[in-house]
Amino acid sequence: MKFKLRKISFFFLLCALTYSADAHVTKYLTGSPVDVQPALHGPAFHFQGGGTDVDAAFQWMFDQVRGCSDCDTKLDIVVLRASGDDGYNDYLFAMKGVNSVETLVITDRNDSKKEEVIRAIRNAEVVFFSGGDQCNYVRNFKGTAIEDAVASVVARGGGIGGTSAGLAIQGDYTYDSCGSSNSGTRSFEALANPYLKGISFTYDFFHWPNMQGTMTDQHVVERDRFGRTLTFLARQIRDGKAKSVWGLAVDRETSLAVDKNGLATVMGKGPAYFVLADHMPEKCEPSQPLTYSNYKIWRRDAGQTFDLKNRPSEGFYTRSIREGVIDADLYEEKPCDEFAPVSADDPAALKNQIDATMKQCPYDFSPFKYVAATKDQEYIKAKTATLRRFLNSATRLDRLLYFPLLWDLELQTGDPKEIHKQIVDDVKDLSANPAFRGEEASKALQRGRELLTRK
User: Fold this and answer.
1) Average pLDDT, the chain
2) Of 21-35, 64-78, 124-138, where does mean pLDDT reach its minimum?
3) Does residue 360 register a pLDDT over 90?
């Protein structure tokens, strides 16, 4: 194995080094300053939908690139960020087969041509894009020497990964979020107007093997983004960018681990969805709701695979959109049965049943009604946080009506003063939401006001 000395401010092994090149590029190096140059056996890709990182997917990518899972071969990892710090350094350095981890925080397009930045990327065996705002990656990296340097890593058989915003830029077609709010375009907004001002796309960024004709989306279940994913696919066909397009929609804490043969394995929590739009939309016009018939959807849970090189033509379920309204649950092929606990007197069995149902039916909120019955405070706290994430992005009335349950759970596990502040904000937002109307909605708002009167 060859070694080449890097040019950095200090030379020492197994260290953590932080320094600034100038006002824009901040570099963090953990590990050896000596550049290893092993034979590479990829390419391999780790596409994560955001949230807590999937340890197994990172290690899988490293092992694919090393060509082994139990050997002395080591790799240099570069983490690219447009904000943040060295949060990945110690985490990745602790994994098998890592010689060094260098994070480059690049906030200005002019810094994407700096020689030391390009050299670090080209010398890396794996490049990983952190989360944040994909618009920053588009503005700072596209059309620069960084784009070519990252592509050279794949050409050598290296690894590429990205989470959340770092996943959003990995397909042929990119929703760049450059014109949208901090929360990004929401599903109900996109379905009502596919040409909403905040919906914009970037093309000809990265083109990876076996990812031809794809568009990626992240946090898909957690933030109920499937509707916007379908809208984005329809736009590519309506705008003449493609005759057909595939969507890869990945949920939080979930990774698509794609090997050099194009086989994608779902790792982490799951699920992930593969969607084919293969005809012109019936209606996709500015300021008019979308109509599109028969999207083809393949759902894959943790441990299941999908062949991106030889994509299937069967085994899918279909969903249609008419005048902005989806005809059935996007996330499940068949409607989920109403949750009924087998035994509320057996906390362990109840937790297992809740977890199994939530995995199979991620957008069925009824199991949350029984979380408190487990009497496990840590479990209740974790599930309450999950429900909060869901409801912060929910738009349908039947889902928004779970806010009173959320408040009750939060008051069981959190600081009452902080929870009261959150309830005030929730009641304000729900009162202003035109979808939150009717007798049940009024009862929910009244429940919130009652909770606020308690000490």
Assistant:
1) 91
2) 21-35
3) no
Residue-level pLDDT at 9: 35
Tokens 């705002």 correspond to 133
Q: Which of 6-15, 110-119, 353-362, 394-403 has the highest mean pLDDT?
A: 110-119
Sketch out the chain's domains with CATH numbers.
1-161 (3.40.50), 171-335 (3.40.50.880), 347-453 (no CATH)
- 412 DSSP assignment: H
3-state secondary structure of 126: strand
The β-bridge partners of 249 are: 217, 273
Q: What confidence category does residue 396 fall into, taking pLDDT thresholds of 50, 70 and 90?
A: confident
Nearest CA-CA partner of 18 in 10, 29, 31, 9: 29
Query: Are the C-beta atoms of residues 208 and 44 closer than 8 Å to each other?
Result: no
Strand, coil or helix: what is 198? coil
HSE-up (13 A, CA, CB side) for residue 218: 32
CB 98 within 8 A of CB 146: no
Strand 15-20 vs strand 75-81: parallel, antiparallel, or unpaired?
Answer: unpaired
- Smallest CA-to-CA distance from 125 within 84, 161, 90 is with 161
Alpha-carbon distances of 370 from 365, 373, 374, 378, 394, rounded to whole Å:
10, 5, 7, 15, 20
pLDDT tens digit sequence for 226-251: 999 999 999 999 999 999 999 999 99
CA 41 to chain centre: 26
* Rounded Cα gap, residues 452 and 416, in angstroms: 10
**Among the listed residues 115, 117, 52, 54, the one whose alpha carbon sits nearest the alpha carbon of residue 82:** 117
Does residue 187 have a pLDDT over 60? Answer: yes
DSSP string, 221-243: TTTT-HHHHHHHHHHHHHTTS-S
pTM of the predicted model, to two decimals? 0.85
Average pLDDT over residues 83-106: 96
Radius of gyration of the chain from Cα atoms?
23
The one-letter amino acid at 77: I
103 Cβ contact partners less than 8 Å away, ≥ 6 residues apart: 27, 28, 29, 78, 79, 80, 81, 85, 86, 88, 89
Tell me what pLDDT residue 390 has. Answer: 87
The span from the CA of 73 to the CA of 68, in Å, is: 8
